[in-house]
Amino acid sequence: MRVTFAGSALPKKGALVVFAAEGAVLSAAAQTVDKNTGGAIKRAIGASRFKGSKGQILAVSAPHNSGLSRIIVAGVGKPVDVTPLAMEALGGKIYAALAKTGDKEAHVELSPAKAIKLPAAEMAARIGYGMRLKSYRFDKYRTKEKAEDKPCLAKVSFGLKDFAAARKLYAPLDKIADGVFMTRDLVSEPANVLYPESYASEIKALTKLGVKVEVLDEAKLKKLGMGSLLGVGQGSIRDSFLVVMQWNGAPASSKEAPVAFVGKGVTFDTGGISLKPAGGMEDMKFDMGGSGAVVGLMKALAGRKAKVNAIGVVGLVENMPGGNAQRPGDVVTSMSGQTIEVINTDAEGRLVLADALWYTQDRFKPKFMINLATLTGAIIVSLAHEYGGLFSNDDDLVKKLVAAGEAEGEKLWRMPMGEVYDKQLTSQIADMKNVGTRDGGSITAAQFLKRFVNDVPWAHLDIAGTAWTKTELDTVPKGATGYGVRLLNRLVEDYFEGK
Ligand code: BES
Ligand code: MN
Ligand code: ZN
Question: Which positions are catalytic?
Answer without folding.
Answer: 276, 350
